[in-house]
Amino acid sequence: MMTRVVTLFGRPQPVYAHCDVPCGIYDPHEAQIAALTVLRMNQLAAELKAPAKPEEETNLRAKLARYTATKEAHAERVKHEVRVIWGDYFTADMVKQNPEVPELVFKIMKQASRARQEYSMEAANDLLSSVQAFAEVFWKTKKVATRRVPSNQKSGGELVLPA
Predict the structure, then answer these.
(1) pLDDT reading at 94 higher than 70
(2) Alpha-helical regions (H) of 13-120
């Protein structure tokens, strides 16, 4: 029986989704954490020192490669998390009540791309700021007051949380 199913439908392929049920569980927290990670990778890269010995160059390059890969992955994570909330959670009525949201989402997408492309504290801070603004609007749509609290992460920065 299983052979017929595989023959009929082909091999199962992995699928990726937040929740197309929809489950109704959304939270911009992960986007904020990812933006803080982008900021931290910029900080770590800025702290790298030129190697004193030629044989230390390999380690320096390896660190920079890891920071870059992590920074790019988390910038993409920001985009993913914001896209899911924008596409699956926001309704036309919410957008009417918060007309800044489409432009804010567009801005986040562009800022996350810029943060991937370059090592720039300005780009990382701009991304974090926009994601925080997005979090504030998100919670506003749920009629939940927010507060900014220290992230307590090495990157510094704040998180927007429900009050």
Answers:
(1) yes
(2) 29-47, 57-84, 92-97, 101-117
